[in-house]
Design goal:
Layout: E1 13-19, H1 30-38, E2 44-47, H2 75-86, H3 89-97, E3 100-102, H4 127-144, E4 162-166, E5 170-174, E6 190-191, H5 207-219, E7 224-228, E8 246-247, H6 255-267, E9 273-277, E10 283-289, E11 299-305, H7 318-324, E12 331-335, E13 339-347, E14 350-358, E15 375-383, E16 386-394, H8 403-415
Parallel strand pairs: 1-2, 2-3, 5-7, 7-9, 9-11
Antiparallel strand pairs: 1-13, 4-5, 6-8, 10-11, 10-12, 13-14, 14-15, 15-16
Helix pairs in contact: 1-3, 2-4, 7-8
InterPro entries: Metallo-depent_PP-like, PhoD-like_MPP, PhoD-like_sf, Phospholipid_Metab_Enz
Biased composition (Polar residues): 392-403
Region (Disordered): 387-419
Length: 419
């Protein structure tokens, strides 16, 4: 394996990949196989969550990739599900070749949970039932992940947020945005913002983790300050035109918390803030603005959202996003058609992000070819001291879609959300 540079080191360069969302039932882990064959110079891999999925067997599962039992609730259930996922030979090879820095999102326990609050319609609806389930999920996660003893769960509690320094080139703050968050306002799907989404009481990280993040970034001497976290930080209004629709499970349901974080990047002159995100099964690039409602406002950082290893982004949703692009000018790129991984190459002068895709088939974007190679979908560069990304490879994202396609896709989007 590899280790980070020693204290006081000043490395010239770093190469790593980040991944997320690997629903076993939606196809083969071709992305891991391609990474293992094509990217052997990587220093490490960051996994941003949804390492397993809790659901029972799906009728639409790719043949040979069905889950091994009903929805998981007990410790034995979670252990068996981790064992199933770890049986994949391509993922085994990726783990053999690369150190993994990991954090969880929701599906390691249950879709869209928030702190001790279960998903709507949960099989474990009470606080007591859910915390017992969360303890089981966290325990199995710890047993199966490369984690330090400091992250060993204590019942339903697990300290997962932590920091890694790659010399003075990059600092990585790895967040937990599930265990300490307040409940999603106005439901946990796509909707107009209600007053709760704007409340100062809404938190994605909890106050202690927020202080820890700001203190660490405020002291950082690194050239690049990278936050590795789960759901999309940038604003995105999914409804084209005068009406609006935001994903309440993302930071769009936690507007004041986002303003505090981005405002901190600005006021504290954090060197080159970069945010890495998973969750939404698609690739995006955003300018992080001090005011997303004003496209002329200051850009203080960049967010790179990586696509999933396998988890679906149904094709019917793509025109919804493309149709709303003109109303979201801070969004530089979107691709929902590919599964894959994201490669990052950084040195003292620039941070290069390359979106790598593997071919998909079916309306669910399933990965049906286990030995597929990855190809470059797009690449973006952030220059040292100049926040915001510039595309250097790939085709620009369409910024319009047929109205009928947009309307049909939006109806599907608002009826279903289980990123």
């Amino acid at each position: 394996t590899r280790t980070t540079p020693g204290f006081g080191a000043s490395p010239a360069a770093l190469a790593f990949a980040f991944v997320s969302c690997q629903d076993y039932q939606n196809g083969f882990y071709a992305a891991y196989g391609a990474m293992a064959r094509q990217e052997q110079d990587l220093d490490f891999v960051v996994h941003l969550g949804d390492y397993i999925y809790e659901y029972g067997p799906s009728e639409t599962a790719v043949p040979g990739r069905q889950h091994n039992g009903p929805e998981i609730i007990t410790l034995a259930d979670y252990r068996k599900r981790h064992a199933l996922y770890k049986s994949d030979e391509d993922m085994q090879e990726a783990h053999r070749l690369f150190p993994f820095i990991v954090t969880f999102d929701d599906h390691e326990v249950e879709n869209n949970y928030a702190d001790a609050i279960a998903e709507e319609g949960s099989e474990t609806p009470t606080r007591r039932q859910f915390l017992r389930r969360r303890a089981a999920g966290y325990r199995a996660y710890y047993e199966n992940m490369p984690l330090r003893p400091s992250s060993m769960p204590q019942g339903p509690d697990m300290r997962l947020y932590r920091r890694f320094n790659y010399g003075d080139l990059a600092q990585f703050s790895v967040l937990d945005t599930r265990q300490y968050r307040t409940d999603q306002p106005c439901g946990d799907g796509f909707t107009e913002r209600c007053a709760g989404a704007l409340s100062d009481r809404q938190t994605m990280t909890g106050p202690e983790q927020e202080r820890w993040l700001k203190e660490g970034m405020g002291r950082s001497q690194a050239r690049w300050n990278v936050t590795a976290q789960q759901t999309m930080l940038a604003e995105y209004d999914f409804r084209a035109g005068p009406m609006e629709s935001f994903n309440m499970d993302q930071w769009d349901g936690y507007v004041a918390a986002r303003k505090r974080l981005i405002g901190f990047f600005d006021r504290s002159n954090v060197s080159n803030p970069i945010t890495l995100t998973g969750d939404i099964h698609s690739a995006w690039v955003h300018d992080l603005k001090t005011d997303f409602a004003d496209e002329t406002s200051k850009t203080v950082g960049t967010e790179f959202v990586g696509t999933s290893i396998t988890s679906s982004f149904p094709g019917v949703f793509i025109p919804v996003v493309e149709g709303a692009r003109p109303d979201n000018p801070h969004t530089k790129f979107f691709d929902g058609a590919n599964r894959g991984y994201t490669r990052c190459d950084l040195n003292r002068q620039r941070y290069l992000t390359t979106f790598k895709g593997v071919p998909t088939e079916s309306g669910q974007g399933s990965v049906l070819t286990p030995e597929a190679a990855s190809t470059t979908i797009a690449a973006f560069v952030v220059e040292n001291g100049r926040p915001g990304a510039t595309q250097v490879e790939g085709q620009p994202t369409p910024t319009s879609a047929a109205q009928g396609e947009t309307d049909r896709g939006f109806e599907r989007l608002t009826a279903r959300e289980n990123w």
